[in-house]
């Protein structure tokens, strides 16, 4: 297959780091997209940490909320590494609140960061993938898109929208060697989840049939499977990784 180029948005976060590491270890040329509030030094420090751990990963600044910024990010990656053949749309945020108290700003922030971002990045790489006759896109959704979650109307709506996007785009490019799939993680032991109070974590775990949180590495393994050469017959699919918390 040669060495394929992969861009992972939100690449310096907990889940993004595990995905970047897995793909780098599998022989991909990996770029971690980051925003970090414009903190370039933070991203460079992350890159140095990865290098020390044996992972050679490029970093590329891009604000996923901004279409033109995403275009510049893609240009930078392709200039450094070559054509992007794999895109992992992983960037996202939460701004939890019951709808009765939710502000317009909280709604907009989550819809733009979690859903508009998928269009903003994908639009800049899809034509190249189609022209070359190969592409792999994996969009990161959430168990809470599938089952709903109190206080997350904005997040659940955006993450549900991601899978609708996946299914429609998958049909458009299926004959061109490009697959588009979704992964929907449940509760994963990232720093964000581990920062939650122990008693709340214990309550969450009681609702997970396998009796534990997932690991970022398990999600990364699922992503690696979906972007492999052997997964060319899987498209428009949603792979749940939630320990049995929600089955349908």
Task: Summarize this entry quickly.
The chain has helices at residues 14-25, 40-52, 67-81, 104-132, 143-147, 153-173, 191-194, 198-206, 216-226; strands at residues 5-8, 29-34, 57-61, 84-89, 135-140, 178-185, 238-241.
Describe what you observe in this structure.
This protein is of the alpha/beta class and 248 residues long. It has one domain (5-239): Rossmann fold, CATH 3.40.50.720. It contains nine helices and seven strands; from the N terminus they run βαβαβαβαβααβαααβ. Strands 3-2-1-4-5-6-7 form a seven-stranded parallel sheet, sandwiched between helices. Helix 2 (40-52) links the parallel strand 2 (29-34) and strand 3 (57-61). The longest helix is centred in the middle third of the chain and has 29 residues, at 104-132. The mean pLDDT is 96.
State the helicity in percent bands. Answer: 40-55%
The low-confidence runs, each spanning 5 or more residues with pLDDT under 50, are none
Report the total helices. 9
Overall average pLDDT: 96
Q: Can you tell me the CATH architecture? A: 3-Layer(aba) Sandwich
CATH homologous superfamily label: NAD(P)-binding Rossmann-like Domain
Per the CATH scheme, the topology name is: Rossmann fold
The helix/strand series, from N terminus to C terminus, equals EHEHEHEHEHHEHHHE
Q: Mind telling me the C-alpha Rg?
A: 17 Å
Structural class: alpha/beta
Span between N and C termini?
A: 36 Å
Count of strand segments: 7
Largest sheet: 7 strands, parallel
Q: Overall 3D geometry?
A: globular
How are the SSEs ordered, and which strands pair?
Layout: E1 5-8, H1 14-25, E2 29-34, H2 40-52, E3 57-61, H3 67-81, E4 84-89, H4 104-132, E5 135-140, H5 143-147, H6 153-173, E6 178-185, H7 191-194, H8 198-206, H9 216-226, E7 238-241
Parallel strand pairs: 1-2, 1-4, 2-3, 4-5, 5-6, 6-7
Helix pairs in contact: 1-9, 3-4, 4-6
